[in-house]
Amino acid sequence: MRHSIEFLLNGERIAVDDLDPHTTVLQFLRERRGLTGTKEGCAEGDCGACTVAIAELSADQRVDVKPINACIRLLATIDGKALFTVEALSNANSRAPLHPVQAAMVDAHASQCGFCTPGFVMSLFALFKNECSPSRDRVIEAISGNLCRCTGYRPIIEAGIKATTAICFSTERGESKEKLEANSNGNQALAPTNSQVNGESQKIVWLNTPGRSEALESAERAMIEALAALPANASSESLHYRFGGQQFFAPRSIDELSSLVADHPNAWILAGGTDIGLWITKALQHNATLIYTGGVRALRDIRESDAALEIGAAVPLEDAFHAMNRHYPELAQVWTRFASWPIRSSGTLGGNVANGSPIGDSMPALIALGATVSLRHRERVRTIPLEALYLDYKKQSRAGGEWIEKITIPRRIPNVQIGFYKNSKRNEQDISAVCAAISMVIDRGVVQYVRIAYGGMAGVPKRAINAETELTEKAWSETQVRAAMQAMHADFSPMSDMRASAAYRMQVAQNLLLRFWLESQSAPAEVRVI
Question: CA 370, CA 453: separation in Å to the nearest integer?
Fold first, then answer.
């Protein structure tokens, strides 16, 4: 059993054994390490001023780089990972003292007051390490969780495109190093040359090289070796961290996790912390026992069979959505509007389902697709339809000591038509007023199968059972659709709040079903907010 938190901070190995387990990454960076480039703007993961990047070993021993919100991510969950802040990117002793992303921001005049700039830089750094030549839309998506009140975003987007395009000499794209170096327009800050690779530290080369380029191979191996040497990766020992009468468990197996949850029924079960982080930073709540699921590799697996897609409870939302998109591409556009990239990189599908927010976007889609959830208590596992998990607002059918092990989504039904709609005031980084998910099979003009689920219409994500009954085995016609729209009054009694009135929510919910019918009457056309 291990008792200290160990990770890499900007390349330096760090061990922590004297901090409250509720300490956030942001608090540690600013108050303990004096790394003040990382800012606090909102303390709830919305503004992006606190964005940093983490690198961790994947199941196939590659280095995965992701942006996270330091203000709500607990430091203890960084055990076994590498953490990078904006301070790591610049190197005064280098031939190119600024990182390519930083240099591009300067060249594009993409910073004014500067408070938000480190967060933008780190989001673009994560994109830089993941993709070669991303599209403009992808750059916008990557910074959708970063807010700026000065620049109007245009120069920031230009910087993102320049930084991730000009220097991307990826062998996977089949482009020659010479060609891509020529595309950098001679900017010596942009492409590491052989002399740089040989003369600078592997860390600097790794930070400054995008994608899977030729220059990255040895530096990537060095990063893998550094991560593999951390105790969390070098051994199978679990972490039991204690401080001030509080404890943080990071088990390594499903059996160990099951025992801990059963033995500590009042503990917080923690994954990415995108909800629990706000309980700590906003509600100022603490719990004497935290149990972290991220160390259980089996819970981070995605398994596909002929019958279903199984997603472990600790799979990050970003990875879960990509897996679902392969089978249900209709959902892809909505997933990009789900929170921001840092939130999707930290938050998990199991955590989102367990939270059960009535305005969560994933649950209506999962319910419409017929998903089930597996609940475990020690060795016993039971599987129920996802909608059966939610009884009322913050009330679930989980028994004491039960926890969510996986979510199972059936494979696509032949000839199924799917619609998923999100209604919110902003296109990005906004909570739904209403979201709707519809799955339907129509044969010779008659509805043979239908599932309709909504968020924002009740205290829990909920199916429109009466509307479904009005449609099942009936002609797929406007008359029948309008009858189903009226039946929704028996399904829902929405509330009024700051996002929408009850009357507005009902009208939108009804109209979204009508929209689905209208879209089914003609050839599919892409509809997106610009």
Answer: 10
Helix residue spans in 240-376 (DSSP H): 254-263, 276-281, 317-327, 332-335, 341-346, 349-355, 362-368
* pLDDT for residue 305 is more than 60: yes
3-state helix, strand, coil in the chain (%, to 5): 40, 20, 40
d(CA 84, CA 132): 20
Domains of the chain, start order: 5-86+236-292 (3.10.20.30), 89-228 (1.10.150.120), 416-520 (3.30.390.50)
Phi, psi of 394 (to 5 degrees): 60, 25
Q: How far apart are CA 241 and CA 263, in angstroms?
A: 17
Residue 199 has pLDDT above 70, yes or no: no
pTM, rounded to two decimals: 0.91
Strands of 268-270's sheet, edge to edge?
239-243, 246-250, 289-292, 268-270
Element (H, E) at 377: strand 372-377
- Of 132, 49, 46, residue with least CA distance to 85: 49
Question: DSSP letter at 117?
Answer: H
What is the CB-side half-sphere exposure of residue 176 using CA atoms within 13 A? 3
Query: Would you say the C-alpha torsion 159, 47, 356, 400 has a positive or negative sign?
Result: positive
Distance (Å, whole) CA 229 – CA 241 = 20
Say which DSSP state 329 is in: G
pLDDT at position 178, please?
Answer: 42
Q: Is the model's pLDDT at 330 over the cut of 60?
A: yes
3 state SS of 439: strand
Do the strands 289-292 and 246-250 form a parallel or antiparallel pair, or are they unpaired?
Answer: parallel
In this structure, what token pair is assigned to residue 35?
């790394």
Of the candidates 173, 165, 224, 160, the one whose C-alpha atom is nearest the C-alpha of residue 191 is 165
**CB 86 within 8 Å of CB 121:** yes
Residue-wise pLDDT tens digits, 113-136: 999 999 999 999 999 999 888 899
Phi and psi (nearest 5°) for 15?
A: -125, 135
**3 state DSSP class of 432:** coil
Tens digit of each residue's pLDDT (9 = 90 or more) over 246-257: 999 999 999 999
Mean pLDDT on 285-312: 98
Instruction: Say if residues 326 and 304 touch (Cβ distance below 8 Å).
Output: no
Give the tokens for residue 86. Answer: 């904006």
Q: Which residues contact 198 (CB under 8 A, 6 or more apart)?
A: none
Which H or E element spans position 376? strand 372-377
Look at the chain and count its residues. 530
CA distance 194 to 214: 10
Q: Angle CA(248)–CA(251)–CA(255) in degrees, nearest 5?
A: 135
